[in-house]
Amino acid sequence: MIWLAVEPARLSRRAASAIRRARSSGGVSIASITLLELAGFFAKGRLRAAGTIEAGIRLFLEATGAAIQEISPEIAALATQFPDDYPRDPADRLIGATARALGLPLATRDEAIRASPLIRTIW
């Protein structure tokens, strides 16, 4: 989603096409944990926007049209149940669990996530 907003050329052709289709037929979603990751990127200067970190996040959401999918009890439980070969990063687990719980494909370049048979991925 970050690449969609600031460097769309970094998206694979397949991911860019899937995101375009999703945006025109119901929208794209991000896991709520992604907001924390975005805040960290703004705080560290890896992403820049005028104003506050909050304003930067709001601009990002407007630019991408992403809907925020909140962490539910089901998503939290799923995030703890991935096998050991799935990335251990809590954010990656919550993002994957969100996609799995909602039955949505996950656009990701992360090879470890893409290798998981539990998550339908696009890249």
What order do the helices and strands come in, and which of them pair?
Blueprint: H1 2-6, H2 13-24, E1 29-31, H3 33-43, H4 53-64, E2 67-69, H5 73-80, H6 90-102, E3 106-107, H7 111-114, E4 121-122
Helix pairs in contact: 3-4, 5-6
Structural account:
With 123 residues, the protein is mainly alpha-helical. It has one domain (2-6, 10-122): Rossmann fold, CATH 3.40.50. It is built from seven helices and four strands. A two-stranded parallel sheet has the order 1-2. A two-stranded parallel ribbon has the order 3-4. Strand 3, helix 7 (111-114) and strand 4 form a beta-alpha-beta unit. Helix 3 (33-43) packs across helix 4 (53-64) and helix 5 (73-80) crosses helix 6. The longest helix is centred in the last third of the chain and has 13 residues, at 90-102.
Brief summary:
The protein is mainly alpha-helical and 123 residues long. 53% of the residues lie in helices and 8% in strands.
